[in-house]
Amino acid sequence: MEIKIEQLKSKLLNPDSRLKLLLIIGVLSIALILLSEVKPNNNRANYEENNDYLSYVSQLEKKTERVLSSIDGAGKCIVMLTISDTAESVYAKNTDESGGNGNYSTSSEYVLYDGADGDTPVLVKQNYPRIQGIVVVCQGADNKLVRESVISSVSALYDLPTNKITVTKIKG
Hints:
Number of helices: 3
Number of strands: 9
Helix content: 40-55%
Order of helices and strands: HHEEEEEEEEHE
Structural class: alpha+beta
Shape: flat
């Protein structure tokens, strides 16, 4: 063991070996820095986007559970929502149309304002993800009147047709 340590010391003290070692460490460091800049940004953006949708859906589910649990006879409710679209942002645009002599052309550009992060487009409206379907599991689902009240309430809350809403009884 001592012999190996001595051999390693002598190699490291050798100027040619030290230069090679420093060169290898430098190249590996640069490669790691470049790789760390490329990969995490994509993952972070996807994580934040997915986290936003999960948070949005989770909040809607909790609010819906509170409302449905307050229906007479419904009892404890568990709600699951599915969404079909992603959020959509609509930005303001300036559009120029010109025509004459049988030619017609349109050009448009986004309206920008000077924000803290530089030029930022003007947001006109934000469309949230669309609810595709809802499942409600509640204690009173075996009662036909309660089930109909839950279905009509969910239909009114989310403007969904009744065939996109399922109500079943909690087991136990």
